TrEMBL record:
<dbReference type="GO" id="GO:0016491">
    <property type="term" value="F:oxidoreductase activity"/>
</dbReference>
<dbReference type="GO" id="GO:0051539">
    <property type="term" value="F:4 iron, 4 sulfur cluster binding"/>
</dbReference>
<keyword id="KW-0349">Heme</keyword>
<keyword id="KW-0560">Oxidoreductase</keyword>
<keyword id="KW-0411">Iron-sulfur</keyword>
<dbReference type="InterPro" id="IPR036136">
    <property type="entry name" value="Nit/Sulf_reduc_fer-like_dom_sf"/>
</dbReference>
<keyword id="KW-0004">4Fe-4S</keyword>
<keyword id="KW-0479">Metal-binding</keyword>
<keyword id="KW-0408">Iron</keyword>
<dbReference type="InterPro" id="IPR051329">
    <property type="entry name" value="NIR_SIR_4Fe-4S"/>
</dbReference>
<protein>
    <submittedName>
        <fullName>Cobalamin biosynthesis protein CobG</fullName>
    </submittedName>
</protein>
Amino acid sequence: MAAVADAVAKAGLLPSATHERVRNIVASPLSGRAGGLADVRAWVGELDAAIRAEPRLAELGGRFWFGLDDGRADVSGLGADVGVQVFPDGPRLLLTGRDTGVRVADVAETLIEVALRFVKIRETAWRVTELADIGELQSGVELGPSVRPVTKTPVGWIPQDDSRVTLGAAVPLGVLPARVAECLAAIEAPLVITPWRSVLICDLDDATADAALRVLAPLGLVFDENSPWLNISACTGSPGCAHSAADVRADAARSLNVESAGHRHFVGCERACGSPPAGEVLVATGGGYRRLRP
């Protein structure tokens, strides 16, 4: 692992030795290209710089994360600890994905302030949901209802607002082989990794998009919104995780064509890593699986 970390650092992919575990930002993947009420991409860079510039935020737990939703309510449904969502009257502060009603003038500054308050009061809490009183983070607010989570990633041919095209490709079980990654890089187009185990290939003309689709689909990327691969996911499982009771990814793949009413996530232990906010979670018992949620 040390060799991998050194290689990643030398490639310039670890801009902060002290804050790397807390630079957890998720933004609406299609923002600025297709739909949404605002382009939140600039906020990502501003927030990242602000996080790295604040020494006290190095004390955040590695599970704490920030959400930037451009108004389509895709990221909000994931329940970020702190975040903003754009509404017709501008961005508002969200806690655990729920609207506080507080309008935000400076996104990065506001989110840093709330995160610092969390550091001050958190004691042993890793996430905002673990606080005894969420109101301590923002006094005098009444949280709105939770946003219904997005359960399927945008896949296929996605027209952009500027007449170009984004290709949405689901990555089965979130495993991207090196050969496929090299093919993606060869397209020389902006790539966006989504929270739903998929990648967006952006800013393509029609001819390039068509050629890319013809090459990438046979390599295993999924461009069909009706594919059963969009209905299953899994944690790392055995042999990659010592806590796992089974090779959950192999088991998930074998269940691909088993009829199901919704999304199924396979996990190797009670930690249930990578579980989406909605759907069925199945935990390995050593002799099969039992339902952990709902």
